[in-house]
Specification:
By secondary structure, the protein is of the alpha+beta class. Helices cover 40% and strands 14% of the residues. The chain has helices at 10-24, 53-63, 77-86, 100-107, 125-132, 138-149, 157-168, 189-194, 228-237, 242-245, 249-259; strands at residues 2-7, 31-35, 93-97, 118-123, 180-183, 196-200, 218-223. It has a four-stranded mixed β-sheet with strand order 1-7-4-2. Strands 3-6-5 form a three-stranded antiparallel β-sheet. Helix 6 packs across helix 7. The longest helix has 15 residues, at 10-24. The chain is globular, with a radius of gyration of 19 Å.
Length: 270
């Protein structure tokens, strides 16, 4: 993993991203992820504490109907995990975005009082996935996601393969050891506005930046802490802010706390 440069302004960042795309004439969008603290690891929330993944999944299943959420919790387990992630419940999904400016926003957020440098990761999911599986086969792509989602049940390989075969009518013989990258369905406003995509983790719980398979497809930019507030104000000029990223009451609350209004241009001093 290589550091691609240091970011001091929005203009600086945009120029770097354009140059990065131009160097190799990419034909598809890359994935980006922003960390407010460069010390954070690329690891899904379910693995950051000693959670019982199956218990959390069953808890969500128990209370989903009263919140008007109706799924087949086995055959649609991948969709369930995406919804759980949306509601902030720990899952084996790691959020990414195809919009680098959204990643930059997260790298500059004020949750850490800007005491640490931020980081924007740049990831080529297409090259990475090609090393994991023949993902260009649409059925193979879908089964890779579904098989990993079934790990929430703590099933062994034969049980997982049985359910994959029942749903897709094909034998599943790919490894589910490593994470698999995919673009999520845009089923709610947050996903649409954040241009969300995921890494769904398999059996290996190693932070992604430490996985051999992620190299050389994963790199990063450092966002210097002293420039974070400046960059947030510059992003807000293009209405990339708390409310545009979280287009709901939660985002409205954040925006008003940070800027004083949905239409104020500058972030307030801490």
């Amino acid at each position: 993993m290589e550091e691609l440069g240091s970011i001091k302004s929005l203009e600086d960042f945009i120029k770097n991203i354009i140059d990065f795309y131009s160097q190799k004439s990419y034909q598809k969008h890359l994935f980006f992820r922003g960390h407010a603290n460069e010390k954070y690891t690329l690891l899904p929330s379910i693995f950051r504490k000693s959670y019982n993944e199956k218990d959390i999944y069953l808890d969500f299943m128990q209370y989903a109907p009263e919140n008007n959420i109706h799924y087949d919790f086995i055959r649609e387990s991948d969709k369930v995990l995406a919804d759980m992630q949306h509601y902030g419940i720990p899952t084996r999904l790691l959020d990414w975005t195809v919009n680098p400016l959204i990643a930059l926003f997260f790298a500059c957020t004020k949750d850490d009082k800007n005491e640490e440098n931020g980081r924007v990761y740049v990831f080529n999911p297409w090259e990475y996935n090609s090393k994991i599986s023949d993902y260009k086969n649409s059925k193979n792509h879908e089964t890779n996601i579904y098989a990993r989602s079934l790990l929430v049940y703590k099933w062994n390989d034969s049980e997982i393969n049985k359910h994959v075969k029942e749903k897709y009518l094909i034998e599943y013989d790919n490894s589910i050891e490593k994470p698999f990258a995919y673009v999520s369905q845009f089923t709610n406003k947050r996903k649409v506005n954040q241009r969300g995509c995921f890494l769904i983790y398999g059996k290996d719980k190693t932070p992604f930046e430490n996985m051999t398979e992620a190299q050389p497809w994963l790199n990063y930019y450092t966002v210097e802490k002293k420039y974070k507030e400046k960059i947030l104000n510059e992003l807000n000029m293009f209405y990339i802010n708390d409310y545009s990223v979280y287009p709901d009451y939660n985002g409205m609350e954040k925006m008003i706390k940070n800027c004083g209004s949905l239409f104020n241009l500058n972030y307030m001093k801490a």
